[in-house]
Amino acid sequence: MRLGAPALAHIPPECRPLVPPGAVPTGIVHLGLGAFHRAHQAVYTEEAVAAAGGDWGIAGVAPRSVTVLDALREQDRLFSVTSASARGSATHVVSAFSALVHAASDPEAVVRLIADPAVRVVTLTITEKGYAPGSAALGLLVRGLLARRHADAGPVAVLSCDNLPANGRHLRGLVHRAAGDDAREWLTDQVTFPGTMVDRIVPAATASSLARAAGALGVEDRAAVSGEPYRQWVIEDDFPGGRPAWERAGAVLTADAQPWERLKLRSLNGVHSAIAYLGALAGCETIAQALTMPGLRALLTRLITEDIAPGLRPPDGITVAGYGESVLARFADPALGHRTVQVAMDGSQKLPQRVLHTIRDRRAAGSIPRWAVLVVAAWMRFVQGRADDGRELPLDDPMAAEIRERLAAAPGTPGGVVDALLGLRAIFPADLAEDDVVRALLVDWLTALGRHGVAATVAGAA
Ligand code: CS2
Fold first, then answer.
1. What is the DSSP string of 219-236?
2. Atom number in ligand 1 closest to CA 203
3. 355 CB less than 6 Å from ligand 1?
4. In total, how many domains does the chain have?
5. pLDDT value, residue 60
6. How much is the pTM?
7. Closest Cα partner for 380 from 348, 334, 409, 350?
8. Domain range enclosing 306
């Protein structure tokens, strides 16, 4: 039997959705139907509606792929979320979607939805590369907002839920530029772009995570997602058309999300990327496995306390060191099965806000961020496509062609590789690329990684 409304009577009562399927009209449009959205905003929204009501069904928009969309359509838009940890797991069916749309084949439906007065919130999980000027998702968002202006459909909040610095402000700038001067006054008046910090580790589904969900439910769920039990959502409270009572689901509504967002980008995502590149090079399949590498935890603790912490002003009551330790404990849970190559993908889009901002802050203060530079060196070795044991590594990155071209034209020495990659201005701003101290340190680390491999370099370093 397959998950869907008729199957709900057959699944264990504690797994059933908090609101009946199809009962809540659309109030939110969400762009991006990935695993993260389903395990994060969809869960918060269902809980908020169950606790406080409101017409906040989510119209989910799949940009290109139809795999998740088809699975959800066959299941009356229901899917399950499994919280998995070494201590055990729990599975719940979530009923958050009120409609589903495929943007690539029906862009007009997305435009109509964004222009619908019943919709008062638009949320996005389009990943870092979705914010490149000219991206399809941004184009649709802007068309939808212009149609909304034309229809005089009232104020709306547009909420970026991606891991970008000042994500709200950044998206606002992109939308205002793309919409043109004519729309500026209306946008300023009617559309807000609250900043957010989103957090939950949600690895891509695998055959075994799908089997675990089916085992818990007793029915098959082809849209099942699985993630850590921990979750956090910090949201700037600026919703001119109202919003779900997300605080009833544990979200923190605040005037300024930036301290949280910076803390998370640099000390969670930055450290995640460090483990991903070093781990993948050392032949480790998962993040948790990589963390068992002798010396790596100590090295990451030094990265957090010596390089990352001095550049951050964390939220009240939080220390960067304490936050960093809790992050490492989350990463270390073997039940997650988060693959190093998944976190390693799209490095060109991730490195700047995760690692390079840390390096620039430290350099501006006159210090030498050894550990943060090691992360960049590991990325430089990773993009060359071979693990320490000679196995091939995937380069899944929108800049892959440019990276390969530069590497092919450069001498294969550490210095040649460093200079070739530092020349990628879209990643490395001139002040960083021309910093002799950083360059020399990159060459040193790349030489060490090439000579001794990651395991020995890490074991000897911290
Ligand atoms: C990860 C994030 O894949 C990645 O790049 O660093 O997806 C991470 O798991 C989440 O941001 C956790 O909130």
1. SB-TT-EEE-S--EEEEE
2. 9
3. no
4. 2
5. 98
6. 0.97
7. 348
8. 258-461
